[in-house]
Amino acid sequence: MLKSLDLSITILYILGILVIGLWAGISHRRKSKANAAGEYFLAGKTLKWPAIGLALFATNISTVHLVSLAQSGFDSGLLNGNFEWMAAFTLILLALFFVPFYIKSGVATLPDFLEKRYDRSSRDWLAVISVVSAIIIHIAFSMLAGGIVLKTLFGLNMYVSIIVICIITAIYTIIGGLKAVVVTESIQTVVLLAGAFIISYAAFDKMGGWDSMTAVLKSNGEMDKLSMLRPHGDSSGMPWYSILLGYPILGIWYWCADQTIVQRVLGAKDENHARVGPLFCGFIKILPVFIFVLPGLFAYTLSKTGHLDISSLGLDDKGHVNSKGIYTLMITQLLPSGLVGVLVAALLSGLMSQVSGALNSISTMVSYDMYQRYRPTASDKQLIRVGKISAGIALIFSLGLLPLLNRYESIFSGINDIIAHIAPPITCVFLLGVFWKGASAPSAKLTLWIGSALGVIVFAINKLYPESFIGHIPFMMMAFYLFCACVSIQVFFSYVYPVQHTAESAELYWKSPWEPLQGKAWSGIGNYKFLSAMLLTVTAVLYYLFR
Fold this sequence. Notes:
Mean pLDDT: 86
CATH superfamily: Sodium/glucose cotransporter
Order of helices and strands: HHHHHHHHHHHHHHHHHHHHH
Helix content: over 70%
CATH topology: Sodium/glucose cotransporter
Radius of gyration: 23 Å
Structural class: mainly alpha
Strand content: under 5%
Number of helices: 21
Distance between the termini: 40 Å
Number of strands: 0
Shape: globular
């Protein structure tokens, strides 16, 4: 249970974020057109690269990551850090290949982009899938992780505490729009990183340093926990080739084609800010392995030496330590009063930033991609009202999913398991649409329909018949196999129904591989080409060191 000082810090932080969020959103809209939909949903396209990079990171890193990456570090070592470092490659893809088309086409949503490149049917399907995935992946799973933390620390009912936090988040998100989301996310990123550094140092200090940790691992024959790239047959089900083949399918959907993430880029001031922002986020994404995953590994070695009491965690159905609560256990056992409150604030930052970002993207898609289709003459005021109502409904629906999602042993694995079955058709139509002139509108529509149906069927078989052949395929490889099937479907139907480009769609694919590098760039260190090469080099060196 938290002491009064920690509880006071937590409450003051929540109220502070509420006030700042309301002030940022309302003041921005007063300075501009009070009821302009573009101001509400896209912050009037005034965002600069630091805010975009920080907001991208904050929307991505939620309480789920703090809780579940520490859990994965405890269970399997640094392996799941691949989801952080591999993101650098997909963020480079976003900056170099996708951003120019998103900015040039002037779209407010990614479904809108698909309509310009393909047709209305593709837009409708992506809008529905994007709203559903935002509710499940970005909101419901974040609520679940936050609920576990709040239940452990406050002793409150998980659902009651989550409802209170989410209502506060919804207030400033629904009233303030994207500007409020980005301003609060920037603050929350700083708080979240500060909290993560604190717990990392506390675990490092308690363990007695890196050498002491590796000595424990060596004595237990578990040095493979420090490896990011595992051999074939590894018990984790994630050998190096599954990461190489499977992650790009998940990552391109998540970072390049998911409205909740990319909406920050769509609100950029210009193309250079839109390109440098994701690259800035890519450099920040190096940190989570050391401040989110590594503390979990330190917790594992601390428990082996008796410096961390994990008896309260209990055992799961398979007789293993139920490590879901390892992060909160570290907070309460390794930190003094006062710092515990700061860490709780950091955890709530992750929850609030994830939920606020998802609610804003849902309201944008429902207003632009659904409501405006049937009411093309709708006023900005009507669009904003519909967006606010849809955000409230999404929040309520997400709460109803919590008992179902809580069945996953690992929250992080649960998220990626679902993404692996959602992402392949979307990744396929975006990639082929941008890189292949011949990708036709009918082929995209059929790929989205058939690919999504395949994903649902395979997911259902996996859950209903876990001992079947399909049930034994790791989710990363399943994502790759589904993607290959989707590519085959789209290529086949592109020849059956040849492409008929409009004047607009003819400008939304690359004519040559070098064309993306010919756009205007800032001089010096801010040049997106230099930053891309630098990020690529740094990530490659890190993989070599932790291979």
